[in-house]
Amino acid sequence: MKILVCITHVPDTTSRIAFTDGDTKFDTNGVQFIIGPYDDYALARAVELKEQLGGSITVLNVGGAETEPTIRKALAIGADDAIRVNAEPKDSFFVAEQIANAAKDGGYDLILMGRESIDFNGGMVHGMVGELLGLPSISPVMTLDIEGDTAKMAREIEGGKEYLEVKLPFVAGCQEPIAEWKIPNMRGIMSARTKPLNVVEPSGNGENTKLEKYELPPAKGDVKMIDAENVGELVSLLKNEAKVI
Amino acid sequence: MSILVFVESAEGRVKKTSIEAVAYAAAMGGDVTAIALGNDVDSSELEKLGNYGASKVLHVDDERLNQGVIQAYSSIIAKAMEDSSAEVLVLANSSLGNPVSARVSVKVGASLVSNVTDLPDTSAGFKVKRSIYTGKAFANVELTKEKKILAIKKNAAEIKETGGTATVEKYSVDLGDSDFGAKITKTDKATGEVLLPEAEIVVSGGRGLKGPENWGMVEELAKELGAATGCSKPVSDMDWRPHHEHVGQTGVKVSPQLYIAVGISGAIQHLAGVNSSKYIVVINKDPEAPFFKAADYGIVGDAFEIVPKLTEALRAAK
Questions:
Q1: In chain A, fewer beta carbons within 10 Å around the N or the C end?
Q2: What are the residue ranges spanned by the domains of chain B?
Q3: Are the beta carbons of A239 and B141 closer than 8 angstroms?
Q4: CB contact under 8 A, B300 and A228
């Protein structure tokens, strides 16, 4: 089983979001970067599948040199080698094209990634990679098992689940509870230092969208507290002030 | 401008989020054609899309499409964009819409933006505002390709009734085996419930409710309000509630008119899933719960006393 896991390098979920350079750049000051939580689920499941079936795991990230500590963490969790496409991820299509180009001659049985990145939340890259490579793409995948040349999975839909089967190879966008996040152990961290991390230059036609400007939502007003003995007041506020019931 | 709108249905009805997508396209101006797939929705239901601004509905009444087959849907919608000379495709963000629109964008070479929150600004180029960082910020982006796809977030457009009726036309596309490469073997779906991503009101419970056996009062409050029920991540992790009810950073992101949180402290990961709600009510026994800072209305007290009283007061106010 040859597995490619695509990861994003994103701000920790507790980060304060701010922008600089006339609201055109994310302010990385004091921000800790992590493997995208959904990508981390994909990686964890890949490690389990490798334990079960043998094979290898390659991680791929599209990003500058500053993303290498995040890539090393994925190697410490259990990937065997890594590819970094040396480019700023401009938009979903740009990233998808880099992944497709890197994957097309790799002979991967499975291409896994998170259902979406937690910075841009696009949720589009897996579908685009599938289309570019002419492979089925399924997302968001909640469970994934491999039996011979067939993948069996559950996909989350509004109000429930859908169960699917597809022949390998295919592309999956993953989410919980596909596997438990894995914490790298000391041996993993030590061995990650010497695992191969290949840097390749970007290729392709570039982006389909252009960022103009970021903005923050307007500040929230103060909370109005209501006495626990007087829930009727809440009902009348919802009715007459908020007008939502 | 010619606009195609992909509409989804459930239990024979066009989904409310898809009606919003039609209303969004109508508000953009131009000629709006909708496309619906599967034979579990009938023509009389589709004609009603005229009331929201569609002049025509293409109906692919193929039984195989009653399930959301991602690749087959993508092939059909890409072809329909071409056949109807649509410059723009509009659809609602959803578990089906998103993977389908990603594939369509590659097939037709379109610029694609998801989580769109407002109508486009076409005064110079074609720009939209989208939500990023799980609702904690917005990005204004320009779509630079000739063809454009917009996956819109709930409440991106106001539904306006025009009184019109749409003509429904049968439409078909030759599909190959590869379109059905992924086989759906079973679907487990709640029926007759208000679905979380569609709901105007959501009532969510957290660990403060102490156990799954105490959800009755949450369900009763939700029923009184016509609301969907949700929960926090620990609650779904402990299997007190099904995963599709988990609201938060790694669960469902909701944007209802009213979000009521009962016994949820308000971890930043939970807030990420609810921060585009119009009004937030927090009921928690801990006055220091961080959720109060994000709330519009708050009550400090015992949920087991307050929730039944609230249900009673709502009933009385009817």
A1: N
A2: 2-180, 196-316
A3: no
A4: yes
Please indicate, yes or no, if residue A206 is contained in any of the structural domains: yes
Task: Give the largest CA-CA distance in chain A.
Answer: 68
Residue A244 belongs to a domain:
no
* Subunit contact A212:B105, Cβ cutoff 8 A: no
Are B190 and A164 in contact (CB < 8 Å)? no
What number of C-beta contacts closer than 8 Å exist between A and B?
264
| Buried residues in B267-290 as b, exposed as e (16+ CB within 10 A) | bbbbbbbbbbbebbbbbbbeeebb
CATH topology of domain B2-180: Rossmann fold (3.40.50)
Q: Given this structure, which CATH class describes domain B196-316? A: alpha beta
Distance from CA of B118 to the nearest CA of A (A): 13
Structure tokens at B64: 């195989």
Whose tokens are 């970094």? That residue is A84
Tell me the pLDDT of chain B averaged across its residues. Answer: 94
**What distance in Å separates residue B267's CA from the closest CA in chain A?**
9
Residue A89: cis peptide before it, omega within 30 degrees of 0: no
CB-based contacts of B24-27 (< 8 A; 24+ apart in sequence): B24/B90, B24/B119, B24/B150, B24/B152, B24/B156, B24/B157, B25/B53, B25/B54, B25/B88, B25/B90, B26/B52, B26/B53, B26/B54, B26/B160, B26/B162, B27/B53, B27/B119, B27/B157, B27/B158, B27/B160
Verify whether the Cβ–Cβ distance A245 to B201 is below 8 Å: yes
Helix (H, G, I), strand (E, B) or coil at A49: helix
Q: How many domains does chain A have?
A: 1
Taking CB atoms and an 8 Å limit, are B299 and A210 in contact across chains? no
- Tokens 């029926």 -> residue: B191
On the question of a common fold for B2-180 and B196-316, the answer reads: yes
Over residues B127-139, the mean pLDDT reads 94
Q: What is the pLDDT of residue B106?
A: 97
Residue among A10, A13, A17, A40 with most chain B CBs within 10 A, to mutate: A13
Asked if the Cβ–Cβ distance from B95 to A137 is below 8 Å, we say: no
Distance from CA of B180 to the nearest CA of A (A): 9
Task: Label residue B15 by pLDDT band (50, 70, 90).
Answer: very high
A177 in a structural domain: yes
Q: In the beta sheet, which residues pair with residue A34?
A: A10
Instruction: Give residue A121's pLDDT band: very low, low, confident or very high (50, 70, 90).
Output: very high
Closest Cβ opposite residue B134 in set A118, A158, A208: A118
CATH number of the domain encompassing residue A154: 3.40.50.620
The answer on whether B176 is annotated among ligand-binding residues is no
Q: What confidence score (pLDDT) does residue B135 get?
A: 87
* DSSP 8-class letter at A217: P
Assess if residue A222 is contained within a domain.
no
Range of the domain at A21: 2-214
